[in-house]
Amino acid sequence: MSEQHVRNVKGKFGKTIQVRLVSDLKISKNYYRDVLGCRVDDWGHVERDGMILILQQAKTSQDVKPNAPAKKRNDYPTEWEGPDFGWDTFIHVNWNDLDLLVEEVHSKGGKVAVEPYVGSHGGKEFKNAAFEDPDGYMIVLGAMRDISFYE
C-alpha cells in the first residue's frame, strides 16, 4: 500500500456506550431495571432500545459528577442559547413516544425532573423532558418535528 493510500484510509468508530460512575451500583442497577425498564446484567451493562450505558461503582461519592449546566451561547444556528440544566445523556425519541416514556417512569415512581414541554426554534418544533437517576444524572428525552408540516 502506498503512503498516500494509508493516510486516506480511516477506521470506523463503533457504537457509543456511556460509562457512568455511580455511588451505589446495586441501587443504580435496580433503578435502570425497575424504573426505566432496561435490561441490566451483573457487569452493570444497561440497555433499552438505543440507550446503552455501563454503570461502574465509584470509589467515593465525590467521584460521581453529573454535568453542570452549560454556558449559554448566542452563536447557535438558531435563537436557542442552550439548555437550562445539565444534560448527562440525550436520547432522540419519537414525538409520541416521549409522553409514553414519561408516563411509564411516573407510574414506576421515577423522578421526572423536567416534565414534557414544547418549544420551537429554527423552523422546528421540539418536545423535551428529563429523568433524574439516583445520583442526579439527567437523562434528557428530545423529539423534533418540522413546524411547517403541521401548519
Write the layout of secondary structure elements.
Layout: H1 3-8, E1 18-22, H2 25-34, E2 39-40, E3 45-48, E4 51-57, E5 89-92, H3 95-107, E6 111-121, E7 124-132, E8 138-146, H4 147-150
Question: Explain this structure to me?
Answer:
The model has no long low-confidence stretch (mean pLDDT 90). It is globular, with a radius of gyration of 19 Å. The protein starts with a helix and ends with a helix. The chain has a single domain, classed as 2,3-Dihydroxybiphenyl 1,2-Dioxygenase, domain 1. It has helices spanning 3-8, 25-34, 95-107, 147-150; strands at residues 18-22, 39-40, 45-48, 51-57, 89-92, 111-121, 124-132, 138-146. It is of the alpha/beta class. InterPro entries: Glyas_Bleomycin-R_OHBP_Dase, Glyas_Fos-R_dOase_dom, VOC_core. It comes from Metabacillus niabensis. Residues 12-144 form the VOC domain. This is Catechol 2,3-dioxygenase-like lactoylglutathione lyase family enzyme.
Radius of gyration: 19 Å
> Percent of residues in beta strands?
25-35%
What is the residue-mean pLDDT, rounded to a whole number? 90
* Low-pLDDT runs: none
Helicity, as a percent range? 10-25%
Distance between the termini: 56 Å
Major beta sheet, strand line-up: 1-4-3-2
CATH topology: 2,3-Dihydroxybiphenyl 1,2-Dioxygenase, domain 1
Any idea what the shape is? globular
Helix/strand order: HEHEEEEHEEEH
Q: Architecture, according to CATH?
A: Roll
